[in-house]
């Protein structure tokens, strides 16, 4: 049950987040091989973690405990599904006698000595470990139905910790942040913001309202307004949205703009590149300070294969231009509005690929209804 999802993230990820917030710095995980990858994903990058199979756990935990510092006098042991909340008993409205949980505390020296003597670990825990109770904010989970009761509490606890670190959150009841997400101080989360997976958010970012970000890196000072970002990397001081769709493989430099109703996928944008509105850019290399006019499209797919478009620094792509890949646009080139570009454009050139305008005199006269 530790790998069952709670609001999209495994229960184990929520527990690791709570333990880390409480001061736990090192983790030892006993896990069967089929679930190891999923379990490792519940720990933040850079977290000190040792994973062992059950048959090797006793030997490896001796090494793990032997490397503990003098200040690590206690070991917290999790024996089954549970949650840990930072709220006190009054906030949780608890009554009756304390309820023990599957979160236990045992002295490091006692556990180290018992394992060295070959003692049964469960017996050692039963004899020497003290369980945390609901008065400590620790609760055992016995069913999936019970798990749902803790959804709002765990998310609220996560947001409180972010707020204490200096993150500005406008609406605690309408903001969601996965336990695996990292948000730097001075970031601002507006109502309707949802942050998922291995997302990182830099200082000074403003996300929302109504923004969804998953497995992405958002650089310091970047604004993402009413948009969706998936598996992408945005540089410093960028602006996304409103209503942009940033898809997997997108990377931008600093000060880039992805405007309203722009869809971008598997593309690299240089510093200062701007795709202001109503455009589709995919499988492309876009240089520094390139500017796209309204309605520009990279035609990257012929139903059999996808091709790349390359646009050099300081180029200008006019409104309603179609770039039929594979095609390359040189540095500083201009593409005239309404052109369909099928051949490479030299640097500093003006490319015009459209029919010459002509007029048919008095052509509309025949469309007018005749008077009776």
Automatic annotation (TrEMBL):
Keywords: Acyltransferase, Cell shape, Cell wall biogenesis/degradation, Cytoplasm, Magnesium, Metal-binding, Multifunctional enzyme, Nucleotidyltransferase, Peptidoglycan synthesis, Repeat, Transferase. It catalyses: alpha-D-glucosamine 1-phosphate + acetyl-CoA = N-acetyl-alpha-D-glucosamine 1-phosphate + CoA + H(+); N-acetyl-alpha-D-glucosamine 1-phosphate + UTP + H(+) = UDP-N-acetyl-alpha-D-glucosamine + diphosphate. GO terms for molecular function: glucosamine-1-phosphate N-acetyltransferase activity; metal ion binding; UDP-N-acetylglucosamine diphosphorylase activity. Pfam families: Hexapep. Its cofactor is Mg(2+). Gene3D superfamilies: Hexapeptide repeat proteins. Its main location: cytoplasm. CDD domains: LbH_GlmU_C (cd03353). The keyword Cytoplasm applies. Coiled coil: none annotated. GO terms for cellular component: cytoplasm. GO terms for biological process: cell wall organization; peptidoglycan biosynthetic process; regulation of cell shape; UDP-N-acetylglucosamine biosynthetic process. It is found in: Cytoplasm. Catalyzes the last two sequential reactions in the de novo biosynthetic pathway for UDP-N-acetylglucosamine (UDP-GlcNAc). The C-terminal domain catalyzes the transfer of acetyl group from acetyl coenzyme A to glucosamine-1-phosphate (GlcN-1-P) to produce N-acetylglucosamine-1-phosphate (GlcNAc-1-P), which is converted into UDP-GlcNAc by the transfer of uridine 5-monophosphate (from uridine 5-triphosphate), a reaction catalyzed by the N-terminal domain. In the C-terminal section; belongs to the transferase hexapeptide repeat family. In the N-terminal section; belongs to the N-acetylglucosamine-1-phosphate uridyltransferase family. This is Uncharacterized protein.
């Amino acid at each position: 049950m530790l790998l069952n999802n709670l609001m999209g993230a495994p229960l184990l990820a929520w527990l690791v987040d709570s333990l880390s917030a409480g001061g736990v710095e090192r983790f030892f995980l006993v896990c069967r091989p089929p679930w190891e990858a999923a379990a490792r994903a519940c720990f933040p990058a850079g977290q000190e973690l040792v994973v062992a199979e059950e048959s090797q756990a006793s030997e490896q935990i001796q090494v793990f405990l032997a490397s503990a510092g003098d200040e690590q006098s206690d070991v917290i042991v999790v024996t089954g599904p549970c949650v840990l909340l930072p709220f006190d008993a009054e906030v949780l409205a608890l009554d009756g006698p304390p309820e023990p949980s599957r979160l236990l505390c045992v002295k490091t020296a006692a556990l180290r000595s018992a394992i060295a003597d070959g003692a049964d670990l469960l017996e050692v825990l039963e004899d020497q470990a003290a369980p945390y109770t609901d008065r400590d904010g620790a609760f055992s989970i016995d069913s999936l139905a019970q798990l749902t009761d803790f959804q709002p509490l765990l998310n609220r606890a996560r947001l409180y910790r972010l707020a204490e670190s200096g993150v500005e959150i406008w609406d605690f009841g309408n903001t969601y942040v996965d336990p695996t997400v990292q948000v730097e101080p001075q970031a601002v989360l507006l109502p309707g913001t949802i942050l998922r997976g291995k997302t990182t958010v830099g200082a000074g970012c403003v996300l929302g309202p109504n923004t969804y970000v998953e497995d992405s890196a958002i650089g310091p000072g970047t604004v993402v307004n009413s948009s969706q970002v998936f598996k992408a990397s945005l540089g410093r001081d960028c602006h996304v949205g409103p209503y942009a769709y940033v898809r997997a493989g997108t990377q931008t430099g600093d000060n880039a703009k992805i405007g309203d109703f722009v869809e971008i996928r598997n593309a690299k944008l240089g510093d200062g590149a701007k795709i202001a509105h109503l455009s589709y850019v995919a499988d492309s290399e876009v240089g520094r300070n390139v500017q796209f006019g309204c309605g520009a499209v990279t035609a990257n797919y012929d139903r059999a294969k996808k091709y790349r478009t390359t646009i050099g620094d300081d180029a200008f792509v006019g409104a309603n231009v179609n770039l039929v890949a594979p095609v390359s646009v040189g540095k500083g080139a201009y593409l005239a509005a309404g052109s369909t570009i099928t051949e490479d454009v030299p640097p500093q050139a003006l490319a015009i690929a459209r029919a010459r305008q002509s007029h048919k005199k008095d052509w509309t006269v025949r469309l007018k209804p005749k008077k009776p």
